[in-house]
Amino acid sequence: MAKEESHGVVSDLISFLNASPTAFHAVDEAKKRLLGAGFKQLSEREVWDLVPGNKYFFTRNYSTIVAFAIGQKYVAGNGFHLIGAHTDSPCLKLKPVSKVVKGGILEVGVQTYGGGLWHTWFDRDLTVAGRVIIREEKEGSVFYSHRLVRIDEPIMRIPTLAIHLDRGVNEELKINKQTHLLPILATSLKAELNKVSSESGKQANDNTGTSNTKHHSLLLQLLSSKLGCKPDDICDFELQACDTQPSIVAGAAKEFIFSGRLDNLCMSFCSLKALVDATSSDSSLKEETGVRMVALFDHEECGSDSAQGAGSPVVLNALSRITNSFSSDPKLFDKGIQRSFLVSADMAHALHPNYMDKHEENHQPRLHGGLVIKLNANQRYATNAVTSFIFREIASKHNLPVQDFVVRNDMACGSTIGPILASGIGIRTVDVGAPQLSMHSIREMCAIDDVKYSYEHFKAFFQEFTHLDAKITVDI
């Protein structure tokens, strides 16, 4: 990859991260990029009319997105070449009733989502972002719209307790997730003064208040101002606390990315960009016999069990609908699954220099070392010798580094969407991810070289898999 192109990949990732404070925003940004690259949006509610050589995508719940490009030589029964990642990250989500007042302070009630490093959320400049359901009147009728919202400026903070009031905090930090993680929005005094000032500056027929008692009126006013509606037009929302510090290239040698949500927006971005670039020219799909696909799921951080998670039928439905668009023979779908391959892409644990003993001595992924192939004998990852070989062979052909990871035998192993999709669909799967530090912190870090390697590896996978798979014999 040329230096200019590799720099472009990293700066493009930074733009993607800064545009994606939530899973909804990540899907929205992915949608914009796909439309700009000539992909056509489909609806799961409608019949699909698909054409070989064309590119498509659909969203589910606007927090999961599936994009695919059909090879010009595709026929029903051929395989799907899929990269799966996820759009969600551990965070603090606002409760259905978020209004909390204690000690003359307005606080915001939140739920912990996923397995976050919650101590990293203290003393950060926070805001809110997510989606809102708004009531709108058009030509005498009432309609309800889904709108994304993000307040750019810091409006909340979770302050730590002074060491003078907890002398042992540096020896043992204990966080009560119910009582210690509530962000402060304002003082009651200032909130009331703000309300009076706002009302006095408006005409009498202006609705500056709200009948909604579940959330602070100050928060609803901020949201309605951003959305250009009245507070009472906000019917419901799914919001989360977000760090306002932007993603950046950093480090003394400018070799790192410091950002929230690298797990797993980094892999989401690399797979999406790889698909777009591997299908960008008129000749990209000319000799392709399969379907190149990317699926970015919500709810991985809490188990994937939802209508839009990897545990749902969303991918199985897509594969079936694509196959059935070209043939009504039900036997061809099963044939296509056995010719398919999934790359489950989720960030990996880089070796931490201050905790060397946390890695098995022969499996220590390094920053700048390339994608990590994850293996686990107990199937917490879905990689096996065949799927690992395929991914390594693609790397070898393109001079890309790869690394290996297994967890220590005396430590628990996490998991990914890989085993979920492998067992649910019956598709060959390899689990991989770029190495990173500070996983599940509000502020994570990875190496820029690994972003470039990941993008190149995923792009090569789309371009090489059909040819390589034809040379592999296992169940014959």
Automatic annotation (TrEMBL):
Stretches that traverse the bilayer: none
SUPFAM superfamilies linked: Aminopeptidase/glucanase lid domain, Zn-dependent exopeptidases
GO terms (BP aspect): proteolysis
Protein name: Aspartyl aminopeptidase
Family: Belongs to the peptidase M18 family.
GO cellular component, as recorded: cytoplasm
GO-annotated molecular function: aminopeptidase activity; metallopeptidase activity; zinc ion binding
Keywords, comma-separated and alphabetical: Aminopeptidase, Hydrolase, Metal-binding, Metalloprotease, Protease, Zinc
Cofactor(s), names only, from the UniProt record: Zn(2+)
Listed Pfam families: Peptidase_M18
Coiled coil regions, renumbered to chain: none
Keyword Amino-acid biosynthesis tagged: no
Species lineage: Eukaryota, Viridiplantae, Streptophyta, Embryophyta, Tracheophyta
InterPro entries: Peptidase_M18, Peptidase_M18_dom2
Native source species: Crotalaria pallida (Smooth rattlebox)
KW Zinc (keyword) present: yes
